[in-house]
Amino acid sequence: MSKKSERPAAWAEVVVVKIIEAHDPHSKPPTMEEAEQNYKGCTAAQKKRCLTEDAAKLAEWNGDVWHYVGIYLRATVAVHLPDGTTLQTATIRTPGLWGVESYSGDDYKESIAREEFATLRVICEALNIRVMPKDLTGGNWDFE
Predict the structure, then answer these.
(1) CA torsion angle 125 126 128 132 (round to 10)
(2) What are 126-144's pLDDT values in tens digits?
(3) Using the 8-state DSSP alphabet, how is residue 65 labeled?
(4) What is the β-pairing status of strands 140-143 and 11-23?
(5) In sequence order, what are the residues at sequence separation of 6 or more whose Cβ sits closer than 8 angstroms to the Cβ of residue 100?
(6) 9 pLDDT exceeds 60?
(7) Parallel, antiparallel or unpaired: strands 11-23 and 68-80
């Protein structure tokens, strides 16, 4: 191939990473009967305390005080063509972790996002996306 006909290949980079927390309509809390299966080996006092806590948590779920969510990442990928044109139409989404209680603390949710970021890196490597942020710094939460 002559030098004149050689053109640099197209390449891609992740330009935005959003951390998505979305309502999970498929997860349901355990029934009281299912919850009681976890009390085997507990003392009567422990079982009574757990039943009270689980009943309160179920009542809050039924009252829409909390719900289950999924946490995943959505990355916008810029595809750079050999002629210098840049397209920003590609989106990559990680599978996410679903069935997370909406009242979970920020530290827990951020740890899930970091795990999803590791998954995003694997996906990008498999797709030969050359440029990827080093971490989630600058990633922002979005709620769906």
Answers:
(1) -30
(2) 998 877 777 776 556 666 5
(3) S
(4) parallel
(5) 24, 68, 69, 70, 71, 108, 109, 112
(6) yes
(7) antiparallel
